[in-house]
Amino acid sequence: MPEGVIVVTGGGTGIGAATVRQLASAGYTVVATGRRQEPLSALVEECGCLAFVGDVADSSDNVRLARFVDEQVPPLVGLVNAAGVMLTKSVAETSLAEWSRVIQVNLTGAFDVTRNLLPALRRAGGAIVMVSSVAADRVPTGAAAYAVAKAGLSMLGNVVAMEEGRGERPVRCNIVNPGWTRTEMADAEMDEFGEVAGLSREAAYREVSKLVPLGRPAKAEEVAAVIVFLLSDGASYVNGATVAVDGAHRLVDAGSLPIDYNVTTRFLA
């Protein structure tokens, strides 16, 4: 059975909660963090994890988190930065306060949690996973602050991989880029989109994922499985990697979509 503590920020819901469940099932001592007590308490009841109520955007909470982790008997061997917020506005529509909040939670919060937990991670060696997004390297419509924050988070992961991957007990760092994934946050987005487009939530999910080669959004558990692998000894030589979990959506060439390839192939033949 694995020995060690793994911290999962944003652990109360979505990809974070799915990751907590899988890590706990694998035998790790998991600290799930989040701003709301209720979903964390439900996870404690479900899988026996430890709960820490705190906001990654609050530096004093991150200091308290580091102290809490230091009090645990197993060493800290992993960190998953999964906390995030979404804002569906363009640059012109986004206020400075909204911009600051999205950057603070999605990027600065991950930086602050990481820097506070690095001393403990260095003692035993371990791994970090930054939960970024395909929006980090593709320009989404109407999600300016979110995309910029996720791009910064991806680069933060690369920097940490370079800086901490040396020494007798290296700390690896990798990035996971989910595409459309069924989570509570995505449900809210689909409801918002559906209200404008006259679609149900399910129809909205189908609409946004219709160009995904696998033909559907991901399940949170599918993204979590990749995160758990990157934290494991099976990924011991994986450092500074970016893993897309998007059903190959990133490979679709929008410019080729109007072409009927069956017709084109027959014509060329």
Number of helices: 9
Helix and strand sequence: EHEHEHEHEHEEHHEHEH
Low-confidence residue ranges: 262-269
Cα Rg: 19 Å
- How far apart the termini lie comes to 58 Å
Helix content: 40-55%
Q: What order do the strands of the largest sheet run in, or round the barrel if closed?
A: 3-2-1-4-5-6-9
The 3D shape can be described as globular
Give the percentage of residues in beta strands: 15-25%
Biggest sheet statistics: 7 strands, parallel
Secondary structure class reads alpha/beta
Mean pLDDT: 92
Topology:
Layout: E1 5-9, H1 14-26, E2 29-34, H2 37-47, E3 50-53, H3 59-70, E4 76-81, H4 96-124, E5 126-131, H5 144-164, E6 171-178, E7 181-182, H6 184-197, H7 201-208, E8 218-219, H8 220-231, E9 242-245, H9 261-268
Parallel strand pairs: 1-2, 1-4, 2-3, 4-5, 5-6, 6-9, 7-8
Describe this structure in words.
With 269 residues, the chain is α/β, with parallel strands linked by helices. It is 48% helix and 16% strand. Helix 3 (59-70) packs parallel to helix 4 (96-124). Mean pLDDT is 92; it is low at 262-269.
Question: Characteristics of this structure?
Answer:
alpha/beta, 269 residues, 7-stranded parallel beta sheet, 16% strand, two-stranded parallel ribbon, disordered C terminus
What's this, in brief?
With 269 residues, this protein is an alpha/beta fold. 48% of the residues lie in helices and 16% in strands.
